[in-house]
Write a structure and sequence with these properties.
The structure holds 2 protein chains of 2 kinds. By secondary structure, chain A is an alpha+beta fold. Chain A is 42% helix and 28% strand. Chain A has a 3-stranded mixed beta sheet with strand order 1-2-3. Helix content of chain B is 70%, strand content 0%. The chains are: A alpha+beta, B mainly alpha.
Chain lengths: 97, 167
Amino acid sequence: MTRGEDIKAEVGTIVRRNMPSVDVVRIDPKPVTDSDGEPSLRITVVVRQHPPRDESRKLSDVVDQFRTWLAKRDDDRFPYFRLISEQEERELQQTDS
Amino acid sequence: MIRADHLLDLAREEAGSQAIGAPRQAVLRRSVSTAYYALFHELLSTVATSFVPANQWKSRVLFYRALDHGRTRDRCKRLGKDPLPDEERAFFEIQSFPRDIRFFANEFVRLQELRHQSDYDPDTRLARQEVQDAIDGAEQAIGTLRAAGNDIFLLPFLSYVLFGLRR
């Protein structure tokens, strides 16, 4: 199983490569079981400001490239990414579901 | 057939509510669900129209209803990998499907999980922007599937989504 620190480093590299204007504040990878019952990764990327639409669409490239990186390590977990700004994160902490 | 475009419009209306203050979580959850269903119905429609001629309406309906959420997601998970899992690589004799088809497959998995969280996980909280990203993702994936009409990999992809590999 790939280590959390390696995941953070690789996600940071891939996000910056595909979304150059994004200022990454924090990357939180969390091993979870998805709704299929399969081991997976939930990766929250907290950014200074939400990127413009053209750039946030590059998240799919991040998923693709990161899956390939995981596969090379025999790690089959599907990575579910969440891109969220600091402000959105603060607002959500005060939101009722 | 159920129009994916109309579902996408509805998802945008739900997410773009101009009410004062933060949008209600219930509204954002509905929007995610609607965006996922837009993608799902586009896939159903592509399956039906790819395999059955237009003058065979009842057969089209049967193909339209042939996919279920769980199996489709499981198969998309496998075909979205680069390289493909061993069994699929041996069967298709390719290293991986083209990027556009992988994109569709991975987006399907991502949106179905988000829909599941939105519909069933009381702890989930969604930001408006991430819901808009999800709708954009669904729209992009729908566009990709439509543009793949002449792609030689489309029918193998749809066939696998329908039937999988016999084990």
